[in-house]
Amino acid sequence: MTKDVTQTNNYTAVNINVLKGLEAVRKRPAMYIGDITSRGLHHLVNEVVDNSIDEALAGYNDRIIVIVNKDNSVTVEDRGRGIPVDMHPEEKRSALEVVMTVLHAGGKFDKDSYKVSGGLHGVGVSVVNALSEWLKVEVYRDGKIYFQEYKRGVPQTKVKEIGNAKNKTGTKITFMPDKEIFKTTKFKFETLAERMRELAYLNKEVMIKLRDEIEDEEETYHYKGGLIEFVKYLDETRSPLHKPVYIEGEKENTPVEIAFEYSDEYADNILSYVNNINTHEGGTHLSGFKTALTRTLNNYAYKNKLIKENSKITLTGDDFREGLTAVISVKVMEPQFEGQTKTKLGNSEVKSAVEMILGEKLSEFLEEHPAIAKKIIEKCSRAAEAREAARKARDLVRRKNALDSMHLPGKLADCSINDPEHCEIYIVEGDSAGGSAKQGRDRRFQAILPLKGKILNVEKAKINKILENNEIKAIVAAIGAGIGYDFSSEKSRYGKIIIMTDADVDGSHIRTLLLTFFYRHMKELIAEGKVYIAQPPLYKIKKGKEEIYAYDDDEREKVLKRFKGNGKNDDEVSEDGTPRGVSISRYKGLGEMNPEQLWETTMNPETRTVLQVNLESAAAADKIFETLMGDAVEPRREFIEKHAKYANLDI
Ligand code: 0RA
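# 0RA complex -> structure
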């Protein structure tokens, strides 16, 4: 503590609480930001930006600049009102200091202007402060510039006036993520870009500039068309049947904004947001949307005789969502989040608000745009016919018991215990790796399902073809929780689904095909974080009796350095840089490892690393799959070029 912050007894007492709060955050960072991997690191930036977005929602900010500085610190600057700096009467210090150092103090001062903030992110900038080696804040307010600096959350001086700010208000926060806390402190431009782009689509009045001074990349996001442009962006690689429909309104104190369009595709892609937070698990706003969409389109179709009254097929909700791309964004004052990942909206008043607004305004729209209305109804009728065909196909397959987990697939080596929570299934590329995995596993809780070659690309196949595919049938039967609309994850026979493919191009293709399948037909599994990617090593490095596995090139270099350093004549180096007496073998495929090695490196829960697949950015995920697996060649080439440096698909 510095002398500035110990003036009065009262002050000291407050400070002890503050220190305790900061200590709690540093002790258990994951409780506040989810985890301490790259994901948690990027969460810091999002947290600060969210505060600036809140200023925009309150109507006071139209521009945010985010910079990854050369020294790897990050600056977020906005043109909001600036964090208040006046003395806080009870705390006896500047409000700025309170906001920056007290947990959850962010919006306390001004309930009215902080109407819709909070929710999932809103842990407050004090958390970012606590997890930063240092943080500097400048506030432009009342014609002055105020400044304070912190180290690991602790103020280094009092709030100081350091100059004049003519005609300017706002807040500038620069923080250095703490290397003691995070496993990695490398910011990825694309990860930051995804969120900034999403925020700019959701808040059309805000311009967000993102600059990375390390990678020398810069983008500006500003979409005056808001959700309409968002939907067009999501559908970039599809062919829409009409111009996006845009609807907005406010009921029950809940502003609602919706844009959607149909294209000639099978999958739907509906993104829902509450206070700019993506609600992967949906909730009341989504159900309101679905109910009103089905009812309004159905009514219109019958009223205008677009569906014959004596027609054999009736259109269901699913038919009205086939090929639909939609974004629903609501602002809720006190959101209740539920569900496994706390991304499901629970407020019941929101359902009726969305239902009423969409019902009213969509009817109007359809009356005013009969040509579009006709196209939409025709599309949904085709969906109903296809669904009927698929039902017949599925019944046929079901009769043969192929999708039924009572009849587990022959090549599944199941585990012996019966408790999904503790059981995992490895879906393995190829019979030979499957063989090693079967021998190497702990058969009590690990099941192995080997796959032959590539599975079907579900992005481009009709549902009846999907259901006829043997590899897919085996996966569906083994997991035993149904597929598509019938899927219910609580029936899953395993708590972890682990994809294990070779570390080569084919392996990554198979992995993508499998992820596409899970994303489109068992999305809950991904939303609930039950899908994982195994991480087999790339190298085995051997010296004498010692064997070490390396999972990437960096690790290989580290091991080589160590081997070089600890021997007697080890500075003698063979021509390719390998120290004498050391051999490196590169694993080309899982099949090259014997069962013990596979267990030790990739399957033993005590020692393995598995990557959890998550839906952090649903918009990005949909785009990735559509781009990688869809028809359009050019976006795929661009995408692969852009992402080539990342080894893993981070959806
Ligand atoms: C508390 C109260 C007010 C604004 C803010 C916090 C605020 C926080 C951040 C964080 C980044 N940028 C920010 N901008 C504002 C209300 C201020 C008032 O009533 O004047």
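# post-check
Confidence is low (pLDDT under 50) at residues 1-8, 108-120, 568-572, 644-651.
The two ends are 43 Å apart (CA to CA).
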